[in-house]
Amino acid sequence: MKAARFHEVKKPLRIEDVPFREPGPEELLVRIRASGICHSDLHAMDGVIPYGSTPITPGHEGAGVVEKIGANIQDLKVGDHVVLRFVMSCGACAPCVQGTDNLCKKLRFLGFEENGTFAEYATVPSRHAIQLPNSISFEQGAIIGCAVVTPMHAMNIARVRPGSSVAIFGLGGVGIHAIQMSKIFGAAEIFAVDISDAKLSLAKSFGATYTINGSKEEAIDKIKRFTDGTGADFAFEFIGLPITQTQAINSVKRGGTVTLVGIPRQPLNIDLKYLLTNEIQLRTSFDHTRAEVDDVISLVETGRLDLSKSVSHKLPLEKVNEGIDILRNNTGDPIRIVVVP
Ligand SMILES: [Zn+2]
Ligand SMILES: [Zn+2]
Prior knowledge:
Blueprint: E1 2-5, E2 14-17, E3 27-37, H1 39-45, E4 61-69, E5 81-84, E6 87-88, H2 94-97, E7 108-109, E8 121-125, E9 129-131, H3 138-158, E10 165-169, H4 175-184, E11 189-194, H5 197-206, E12 210-213, H6 219-225, E13 232-237, H7 242-251, E14 252-260, H8 272-277, E15 281-284, H9 290-301, E16 311-316, H10 320-329, E17 336-340
Parallel strand pairs: 10-11, 10-13, 11-12, 13-14, 14-15, 16-17
Antiparallel strand pairs: 1-2, 3-4, 3-8, 3-17, 4-5, 5-9, 6-7
Helix pairs in contact: 3-4, 3-9, 4-5, 6-7
The structure holds zinc ion (ZN) (2 copies).
């Protein structure tokens, strides 16, 4: 099969012919029909997040068709459409049994530690494949598994309440979906903060009440101005930089909740006394749980979550490096770029 393979840090992926692995008794062979390109792929290719072993096939946002099933598989059959979960939990340890399988003691990551979805086929344990209704396209299915479910987990962690005000810092592929997700969680006012006017106008069309260009306006001042001087009830940071993390902390009201989602790339100096004396709750959100993928699929299937504008670029697998460059250089305002093997 054809696969895009990582060999060396800061080098393009190589399109190679490699054998696929026959599925074991608990596994599936999936014909990949779409695979999203994510910022965490860039981090890994740059050496910021190490791959488990190399060479490896990256790609962790995949959807496709079940091509072969292992002897013990009963809940899926050949021909079923599936979303692949990159959070490969064991299903048996205490966090898994308690429903927090993103904290599994034996957690592994598809596309980082196991060969992923930038390929014609992927062999995965069946518990990491979730049935996708035929009414949802493969492109939308692919991005559900990372870009769309990640903000849902963050909203669940923060416990966003109906009628509340929410500030979103960073409108990349994940952050932009936090706008729609805030609406689903009942937010009455949504502030979208980014430095790209194109992303801000997209956020507006996704339902943001106010947009703030952080390179031209004082985000905290504007958020306070539109919340009677108090600040937002909830803030989410999707970039991982101290400047936006600090802005998020300073944008919430006394008693507000700040949730960090972007992988931090450097330590943050926090004024704990400010947090404590204002009773600001600082939370962190890591990936997602299996149940949340089911919830996102239901929202898309019933039309409550519209992903029709979420995939901005569709490229053949052979052009995966082109897609990676588009994301890296932010050319043509990408929302989510999908490769089709
Ligand atoms: Zn991702
Ligand atoms: Zn586990």
